[in-house]
Amino acid sequence: MHKIILAVRYFLKRRITHFAVLAVALCVFIVVVVMTVMTGLVSDFKQNNHNFVGDCVVGTESLVGFAYYEDFVNILEEQKDFIEAVSPVIKSYALVNVINKENNTGLEILGIDPVKHSRATSFANTIHYHKGDVSKTFVPSYDPNLVGCVLGIERVFERDLNGNYYYYFTVPRTGYSISCFPLTAKGALSKAGMGLVRTKTFYFSDTSHSGLARVDFSLVYLPFEQTQQLCGMDGPTKRVSAIHIKFKPSIKLQTGCEKVASLWQEFRQEKANEKQAYLLDTVTVQSWKNYRRASIAPMENEQTELIVMFAFVGITNVFIVLVVFYMIISHKSKDIGILKSIGVSNADIMVLFSGFAFLVGLLGSGIGLFAGRLFLLKINRIEDWLFERFNWQLYDRTIYTIGDIPNRVEFKVLAIIALSAIVACLAGALVPSWQAARQKPLDTLQVNQL
Amino acid sequence: MRGPVALCVLVVDCEFSGCGMLKLFLWLRYLRKKKIVFLSIAAVALSVSLLIVVASLFTGFIDAYERAAVEAIGDVVLAPPAPPAKFAKYGQFIERLEQTEAVEAATAMLSAHGLLHLGKGNVRAVEIWGIEPVRRAKVMGFDRFLLRQKDSGGKPSFETNDFEEKIGGFVGIGVVAEPDEKTDQYDFDAVEKMYGEEVVLTTGTVSGVNKEGRRAEVKRKVIEFTIADVVETGVHQFDKGCVYLPIEELQKNLYPDEEFPVASQIQIKLADNTEADVALAVIRGVWRSFVEDELGGNLYLINADIMTAKQLQRPYVAAYRKQMGILLLIFGVVSLGVVLLIFCIFYMIVRLKQKDIAIIKSCGAAGSSVAWIFVGFGVCVGTIGSGIGAALGYVFTNNINTIEEWIRIIFGLKLWKSSVYMFNKIPNEVDWASALSIVLLSIIAAAIGTLIPAIVAAATKPVEILRYE
After folding, report:
1. Is the Cβ of A386 closer than 8 Å to some Cβ of chain B?
2. What is the pLDDT of residue B211?
3. Interface test with B, best of A313, A318, A326, A405 (most B CBs within 10 A)
4. Given this model, what pLDDT does residue B213 score?
5. What is the 3-state secondary structure (H, E, C) of chain A?
C-alpha cells in the first residue's frame, strides 16, 4: 500500500513530474494523430486493392494468357463450400483514342463479365451510372445497340478543389477507338486476315472509381468477349489472363488460397498432355495481398520508416523521465532511508519508483490519447476551415486522390502507442530507481545529512 | 574545498575580466561533474540530425525532380495548344530562336502514344518521342543517357550497323528489362542482347473530317524498327515508358500528307546567365513573329504555351514542399521535448548548485550575471548538440544509399525503388540552408529551456543558502 501512496504523493507534490507528463502527452498526441492518418491511408489503400482484386487470383503476367480456363472455372464453381464467386478476366494493353480527336493514349484494358466480376470483386460499387443494374454496365444509355466501355474516373471527369468529381447528369456520348496487338498462343503477332492490329470502337457507358490512382487513371473495362477477340485469345482454345476469386466470408484468406493452389496443381497435372499445357507453367495462385504487393509494400515501408523516426525522437522522452526521476530521488533520499530502515527491500523501492513511472506514463499517454482523439474528430473540419480561410489543405485534392483525411482511430494502434509510452517511462526510470534502491540508510540518515 | 576557493578567486577576477573566465570555468566544471548534461546534448543532437536528414532528403528529391524535368524537356518548352497540337516549319523557328542571345540551342520533338511488341507475348504501352538526337544532345545532354554511344565520343545517332535502310530507334531501359525485385538494378547483360533486335510499334492518328462531312477515321500505323541504343535517364517514368524514333520517320508515319516538317514541342536551352522571365519574353516575341510570317498568323498557334520546366512542375513541387513542411513541423513539435529536458536538467543543476550560486552572488556578482551563466551554458549545450547533430545528419545523408543497401542485405527490405520514387538513387546532398536554420533554432530552443532555471538561479538569496543551520 505504501508504494501506491508514495507514488501518488510524489506525483502530486513534485511539480517537476508534470513536465514529464507533458512531454509524454505531447509525444503521444503527435504520434496518435500521425499514425492514425497514416494507418488510415494505408488501410484504405489496402481495402481498395482488396475490393479491386477480390480474395485470390489465379493468373499469369504474360499477355498471351493461359488456356483451358473454362474447365478450371467449372472446377472452382463446384467448390461451393469455400468459393463464393469466380470471374475470368483478360488483361492487356491497348491504344485508345477518342473518336474525332487526335490524342492516342496507351492504356491497360480489362475484359470482364460485369455480373461475374461484381460478384468476385467490388466492381459494382465503383461504377456510377449503372449502380442499380450492373448487367447493363456495357450498355450506353444513349444507344443500347452500341458496345460500351467503362473508363477510370480520372480519364473522364475533373475533380473540384475538395476532391469531389463533377459527374454529368446524363452519360456523355463519346466513342473510343481501341486497338490491340492480337497474340497467338506462342506469343507472336497474329496476322490472320486482320493485319497486325485489331481495332474496335466502344462507347462510353460508365465510369469506375476504385480509389486507386493508377487504376482510375489508366484502366479501361471492356466486355469480356470483345476483349478476347481484340487480344487474339478467342481461338479454338480460348485463353484468359486471370481468374479472380472470392471466398465465402467464413473462409480464411490463407486457407482459401491454399485450397485453390492445390486444385490448380491437380488441374495442371490433368492437362499436362494437352497441346497448350505450356501456357499453364507461368500461372500462379496468389492472395490479393501478394498480387498487389508491388503497390502496397511501399506504403507499408513508409509507415515503418515513420515509426522508426518517432522511436528515435521518443528517446528524448526517456531522457526527460530519467532526469525527473533522478531529481526526485536525489531529493527523497531521506524517505528512501526511512523506508529501508523499517525493512523495505531493494526490490520494493524499485517497484515504488517503477509504479511512479507507470503513473507518469499512464497519465501522459491518457492525456495525449484524449487530445489526439479530439483533434482527429475535428481534423477534417479544421482542414475545411483552413481551406476556406487560408486556402490551405493538408493534401491538395487536385493532386492526391483522397477524399477526407482518415480519422478512424484503431484501438490496436492506440494501445500500442500508450504501451510504448509507458514502457519508455519505465525505461527512463530504471537507472534512477536502481540508484535509489542501492542507497544505504546509514549514509542518508546521518545527522549531518538531515 | 578546492571548488569554492577557486570560485572565490574567479569571482574576484570577474570584476576585472567581465566574468568570461568564471562562466567558462563553471561551464566546464558542470560539464565534467554533471554527466547528465550529456543527455541534453544527445537529445539535441538526435533531433537536429533527424530534422536535417528529413529536410535534406525532401529538398534533394525536389531538386532531382526539377532537374529531371530540365533534362527531359530543356529549360523552356513551347507547345502549341490542341488542336492542332503541332506546327510546321519548326526548323525555321529554331533558326530564329538560336539567333537570339537568350537561347543557346533548341530542338524539336513530335510525340505520340503507341504499343510496342518486343517479342513473344511481350507488349508494352509506350510514349513515342520523335527526336533530333544531335540537337537534343546539345539542349539537354541526351547523349550521356545512351548506354552504347555515351562513351563513343561521336554524335548520337539512330544508325544501326546491320542494314542502312532499316529504321533505328532507342528504347528506355525499363521497356526492355525489369529491374531486379531485390536490388532494383537492371540486368545489363540482358539489355545488351536487345541491341539490334527488331521490334514492332503501333501508333496512329485521326484523319480530319473530310469535305463530304464524313466522320473522322482512326488510322493505325505499324512501324518496325531496330533497337540502336538503350536510354537510361535514371528517371523511372522515362526509362519505363519511352521509345525514341527519328522525328522525320515518325512524321512520315503519322502525318504523311504534311508538306513541311512538323513538331509538337520545341525544347529550348537558355544561354548562361539568362533570366528566365527575359528569355520567356524573347521566345514569345520570336514565336509571335514566326507564326505571323510563316504560319498565317494562326490564332490558336500564337497562344502556344511557353513555360519553363520549373513552371510546369510547380504544382507538384508545391505539394512536395508542403509534405516536407508538415513532416518538419511534426518532428519539430515532438522535438520540443528537448526544451523540457534542458529545463529539467538545468533546474536540477540550479537546485543542486545553490551554494555555488550563493558564493558567486555573495562575492558581488549581479543576478543577471548569474542568469547569463546558465543561459550561456544552455547555448553551449545547444551548440555542441546541434554541431554533433549536424555532423551525424551529414554523414547519414551522404551515405544514405549505402545504408539503404545494407538494410536490404541485412533485413531483406528494399526501401527505395525507382518504380515508386521515380529516381534510381536516393538524393544524398545535404540541404545546408535548412541545416543552418535547424541548428540556429535548436540553439535558441536550448537557450529557452534554460530561461526559468536561470531566473531561479538569479533570484537565489545567498543569506538563506549560506546560513550555517
Report:
1. no
2. 46
3. A313
4. 46
5. CHHHHHHHHHHHHCCHHHHHHHHHHHHHHHHHHHHHHHHHHHHHHHHHHHHHHCCEEEECCCCCCEECHHHHHHHHHHCCCCEEEEEEEEEEEEEEEECCCCCEEEEEEEEECHHHHHHHCCHHHHECCCCCCHHHCCCCCCCCCCCEEEEEHHHHCCECCCCCECCCCCCCCCEEEEEECCECCCCCECCCCCCCCEEEEEEEEEEECCCCHHHHHHEEEEEHHHHHHHCCCCCCCCEECEEEEEECCCCCHHHHHHHHHHHHHHHHHHCCCCCCHHHHHHCEEEEHHHHCHHHHHHHHHHHHHHHHHHHHHHHHHHHHHHHHHHHHHHHCHHHHHHHHHCCCCHHHHHHHHHHHHHHHHHHHHHHHHHHHHHHHHHHHHHHHHHHHHHCCCCCCCCCCCCCCCCCCCCHHHHHHHHHHHHHHHHHHHHHHHHHHHHCCHHHHCCHHHC
